[in-house]
Amino acid sequence: MRGLVGMRMMAVAAVALMLTGCLLFPGKFAADMTVMRGGGFSFAYKGDIHLLGLSQLIAMGAALDDKGAEFTPGPCYGEPAEVDAAVLKTAFAQDEEGWAEEALERECTPSEIETQKQAWDDQRAAKKAEDAKNIEIAKALLGGIDPTSPDAIDEFIVRIKKQKGWREVIHKGDGLFSVDYAVSGRIDQDYSFPTIERVQGISPFVVATARTNNAVRIDAPAFIGAGQSSLLGGNMGGLMSLFAAIGASSDGPEGKLLASMPKAEGSFTIRTDGEILTNNTEDGPSGSGALRVLEWKVNARRDRAPEALIMLNPA
Fold it and tell me: For residues 53 and 152, is the Cβ–Cβ distance under 8 A?
C-alpha cells in the first residue's frame, strides 16, 4: 500500500511539473547529425516543438483577474425523520438514481448558505494563491518571461532567434512551434539540443558527449515512443507505465491528460566516416559514399531511445 501511495505521489508530481514547467517536447520532425572523424560535426532539426503547459498557464493568469465569478449555493438535505414518510415511500418506489437526495433536499438556512459561501471563498483564495505560485515558478524557468502575458510568445521567439542556429521559429498556437534549426562546429566538447538562453528545466532531445579516448557518444532521449523507463525523459512512456501501475484508467483525468500529450514522430539520422563502435538501430549502419549512416524511425512503437558510440581520429 505504501508503495502504491508513493507511485501516486510521483504521478501527481510529474503532472504538476508538466503543467507548470517549461518542458519542451518534439512533435513531427526530421533530425540529422553528421560527425566526421576529424572532429567536425553538424546538426539539423526541422519540425515541431511543443512548449507544454502554456495554455494552462494562460488560463491561470486569466483566472487571477477574474472578478466575475459568482457564488451559487449548493443543495441542503434533511434527515429522513424530518421528511414525510409518504414522500420517502414514493421516491423509493420510483427506484431512480438520486431518489434519496431528491426526497431529502430542503431549503438551506441562512447559516448554511453563509457556511457554504465561506468555504467557496476559501477554496477560491487557495486556488488563486496556488496558481500565482505556479506562474511565478514558470516565469523563473522561462528566464523572466511571464507566460500569462500577451507578449510572452513574441518575447520567447525573439530570445530564441538571438542564438545561432535558429533559422526559423513560428508559433502555430497553444505552445506549438514550427522550427528550422541548423548548426555546425567541433565535437571535441559536449553538445546538446535544444538549449535556450536563460531558460531552465529543458530536457535535451539530443546529447553528444565527448570522451577522453576521442570517442563520441550520441543519445536522443526525447526520440522515443511508449515504454521508456525514464519518468520525464524525452516522452511520456514512463509516465504512462506509472499511471498503469497505479490503476489509472484511460477514461480518467490522468488518461485524458496523457492522450492529449504530444507524440514524437519522425526520423533521426547520423552520418559519419568514423568507426561506429555501438548503435541500437534496427538494421545497423548502411553506406552512403564515404559515410556510414545510422537511421532510427521514431514513433509510438519505439521503446528505446536512439544511441550510438563513434570513434574519431586520435587527438
Answer: no
